[in-house]
Amino acid sequence: MNKDQAHDLRIKMNQQTEEHAHTIAVFSGKGGVGKSNFALNFSIALGQQGKKVLIFDLDIGMGNIDILLGLQPKNSLSTMLEKNLQISDIIEEGTQGISYIAAGTGLSDFFHLDQSKYNYFIQQLQFVASTYDYIIFDLGAGMSEEHLAFIQAADESIVVTTTEPTSITDAYAAMKRLIVHSSRDHLKISLLVNRAQSEQEAQIAFTKLESVVTKFLNYKLNFIGFIREDRTVVEAVKKQIPYYILNERGKAKKSLDQVITDFMNEPVKHKNNRQFISRVRSMFTRKVD
Ligand SMILES: Nc1ncnc2c1ncn2[C@@H]1O[C@H](COP(=O)(O)OP(=O)(O)O)[C@@H](O)[C@H]1O
Ligand SMILES: [Mg+2]
Hints:
- One of its GO terms (cellular component) is cytosol.
- The chain has helices at residues 3-15, 35-48, 65-69, 77-83, 87-90, 115-131, 145-153, 165-180, 199-217, 231-239, 243-246, 251-265, 276-288, and strands spanning 22-28, 53-57, 91-93, 99-101, 134-138, 156-161, 189-196, 222-228.
- By secondary structure, it is an alpha/beta fold.
- It starts with a helix and ends with a helix.
- Adenosine-5'-diphosphate binds next to helix 2, strand 7 and helix 10.
């Protein structure tokens, strides 16, 4: 970036300080539970409700939203920081009007960015936060330091599990680490049960987790709903077309529609909007200083 570009960018940033994106971090304990498929199709469904949505792949090195979309992104978060690109240069236009940022590789030391890169990252994030209605972060499996920080900074988080006991146990372990290390006032965690055979099966999985989370972590887990097991999800992955688009009458799409309806009907007052950037700033200050 040359001097003039930097100047232009600063002016642009100052004009767009009004942050309004609602930020949601999607995480899981175990990998392979359908987190990326959920994050992507949830974003597309929100897009179809007329919302401006950015899906931000933060699964550095393992991100695969681009594969699910059939895209081959030229740039990524990693190359933005390496080459000082503007965030608008790394945003890809995906299916159905949603925008997408690839994770890329090589950004292993996210928290040890030098001060100028860190300032630059915050500036760029501020720009997207003022441009989109929703930013959905797809995090990798497990609960690293980086995941903890992003979940704490986001307005809310969604933990994805299947109904398998191994997946439920790992979701609990991830939530435990998160809850123990966070201030509860700012934490909203909702459970999404993926690959459920029935509503009853999903409800049982939720009740199991809810009861241990209440008993041992003294935290009230929210339930955002479930997505049915659907063979056509596998077909959608193979065709690199999101299931929400590929199979309009599929069980997965229909259950996601129910999740979206409930989500959109939820009163906004429960969500602590408009503090994302300051929370990201403080999470970095904590690490950088
Ligand atoms: N609702 C579903 N029904 C059937 N299969 C599913 C469903 N959701 C996910 N899958 C399968 O799980 C695989 C892993 O999904 P993915 O979203 O990549 O998981 P993660 O991001 O958690 O690693 C998909 O490729 C697909 O085969
Ligand atoms: Mg994934």
